[in-house]
């Protein structure tokens, strides 16, 4: 097989990239190791920044999102049994976010790709990326050109391409093609994770609620007007099955409790899982003709709702750079890819880390640190500059 851009992974990054390239008249092949049903059902992100919404619309992938997505103009912070609403449009000059699940974004992009785009192979696992060598400029690729070895329908095959984009998430293979001596990894893991449930009950609040509590963090989110998504901070290594549904609801109730008698509605739990928390950045995001995008290059704790949005930023940057190269012959933007993406990535890393440390309780937190956490929340509730900083970070850092 031969194509211009070999894309490994059909998560939001790989699927959107294939769409953007198709729209620019550049052909690609997407290899995805899992089957279609698995990709369309994997519960993950749910908050789209304004910039992501704009990109999906411009790519022709926003019609169902505009019909079914829920525009949110704010979030609520809870601490000390108090409530504070952060009003995004008022603080950011009109920006908001969209609640539209990652599963739905992927379904829309898969349907478009299969109807109009290039090949998208499910159950096609990339085994190795070869021939991308040359850290200096895209001209430095190995003489045979980039190749992706993959397994599909029981046999091995090779995809030959001009460029490879590794959109294969944190556990993928693309990153391993970059020599260790050229790589710097920045990493932090946290001593807690999120126990997440999906429940068939209307959300108890019409906006997301981020609660800081002495027993740990809790988040109320939603997937639709009739499906709630809720999370509890739990110790690292917790098994979701250790918690009965009733224990989860009881604990959520405690952590969301307010002085004004707000009530949490319960319903049947349809899914339950634990997500570990990690901050991770792989530098550089490019090596020769191999480019990394999305979770393949960076992970943020989900507190800031940034992961999917960063993935979108990366592939927009790559698609623009490659289009520029095809139109002008200049590899200037491709050569700047890693630095361009990393500037935005580090702002999102900072924001996600700040949100996480603002709201979660570490097992060894001292009373002094507890008070500082509350003081930071009071500052956001009381000072417009601090509140604006949160609103700007949450609604998203602009693409360069
Ligand atoms: C519980 C949870 C909540 C989250 N909430 C949010 C949120 O609210 N907002 C937000 O923006 N982000 C959120 N995120 C993060 C977000 O889901 C990820 O950042 C996003 O999925 C990244 O997209 P991606 O395409 O880079 O990677 P992925 O979605 O991981 O996709 C990678 C794809 O590559 C495939 N693959 C892997 N290896 C191979 C191989 N060798 N060959 C072929 N295919 C391969 C995988 O099967 C997968 O389909 C959340 C994540 C979790 C876990």
Automatic annotation (TrEMBL):
<protein>
    <submittedName>
        <fullName>4-hydroxybenzoate 3-monooxygenase</fullName>
    </submittedName>
</protein>
<dbReference type="Pfam" id="PF01494">
    <property type="entry name" value="FAD_binding_3"/>
</dbReference>
<keyword id="KW-0274">FAD</keyword>
<dbReference type="InterPro" id="IPR002938">
    <property type="entry name" value="FAD-bd"/>
</dbReference>
<dbReference type="InterPro" id="IPR036188">
    <property type="entry name" value="FAD/NAD-bd_sf"/>
</dbReference>
<dbReference type="GO" id="GO:0071949">
    <property type="term" value="F:FAD binding"/>
</dbReference>
<keyword id="KW-0285">Flavoprotein</keyword>
<keyword id="KW-0503">Monooxygenase</keyword>
<feature type="domain" description="FAD-binding">
    <location>
        <begin position="2"/>
        <end position="352"/>
    </location>
</feature>
<dbReference type="GO" id="GO:0016709">
    <property type="term" value="F:oxidoreductase activity, acting on paired donors, with incorporation or reduction of molecular oxygen, NAD(P)H as one donor, and incorporation of one atom of oxygen"/>
</dbReference>
<dbReference type="InterPro" id="IPR050641">
    <property type="entry name" value="RIFMO-like"/>
</dbReference>
<keyword id="KW-0560">Oxidoreductase</keyword>
């Amino acid at each position: 097989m031969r194509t211009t851009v070999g894309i490994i992974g059909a998560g939001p990054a790989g699927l959107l990239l294939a769409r953007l390239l198709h729209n620019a008249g550049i052909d690609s092949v997407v290899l995805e190791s899992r089957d279609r049903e698995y990709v369309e059902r994997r519960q993950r992100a749910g908050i789209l920044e304004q910039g992501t919404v704009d990109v999906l619309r411009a790519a022709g992938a926003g019609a169902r999102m505009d019909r079914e997505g829920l525009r949110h103009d704010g979030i609520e912070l809870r601490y000390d049994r108090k409530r504070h609403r952060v009003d995004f449009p008022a603080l950011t000059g009109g920006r908001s976010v969209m609640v539209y699940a990652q599963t739905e974004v992927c379904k829309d992009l898969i349907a478009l790709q299969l109807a109009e785009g290039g090949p998208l192979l499910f159950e096609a696992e990339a085994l190795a990326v070869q021939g991308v060598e040359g850290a200096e400029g895209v001209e430095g690729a190995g003489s045979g050109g980039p190749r992706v070895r993959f397994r599909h329908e029981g046999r091995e095959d090779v995809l030959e391409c001009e460029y490879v984009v590794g959109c294969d998430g944190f556990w993928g293979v693309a990153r391993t093609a970059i020599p260790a001596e050229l790589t710097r990894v920045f990493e932090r893991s946290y001593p807690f994770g999120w126990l997440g449930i999906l429940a068939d009950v209307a959300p108890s609040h019409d906006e997301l609620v981020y609660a800081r509590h002495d027993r740990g963090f809790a988040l109320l989110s939603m997937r639709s007007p009739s499906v709630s998504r809720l999370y509890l901070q739990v110790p690292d290594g917790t098994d979701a099955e250790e918690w009965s549904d009733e224990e989860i609801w009881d604990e959520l109730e405690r952590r969301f409790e307010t002085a004004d008698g707000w009530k949490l509605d319960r319903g049947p739990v349809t899914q339950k899982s634990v997500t570990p928390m990690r901050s991770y950045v792989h530098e550089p995001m490019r090596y020769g003709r191999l480019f990394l995008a999305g979770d393949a290059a960076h992970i943020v704790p989900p507190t800031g709702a940034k992961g999917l949005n960063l993935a979108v930023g990366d592939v927009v940057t790559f698609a623009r750079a490659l289009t520029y190269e095809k139109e002008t012959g200049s590899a200037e933007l491709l050569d700047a890819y890693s630095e361009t993406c990393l500037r935005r990535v580090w702002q999102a890393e900072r924001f996600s880390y700040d949100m996480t440390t603002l709201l979660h309780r570490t097992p060894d937190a001292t009373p002094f640190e507890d008070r500082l956490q509350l003081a930071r929340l009071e500052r956001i509730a009381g000072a417009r500059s601090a509140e604006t900083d949160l609103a700007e970070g949450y609604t998203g850092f602009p693409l360069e």
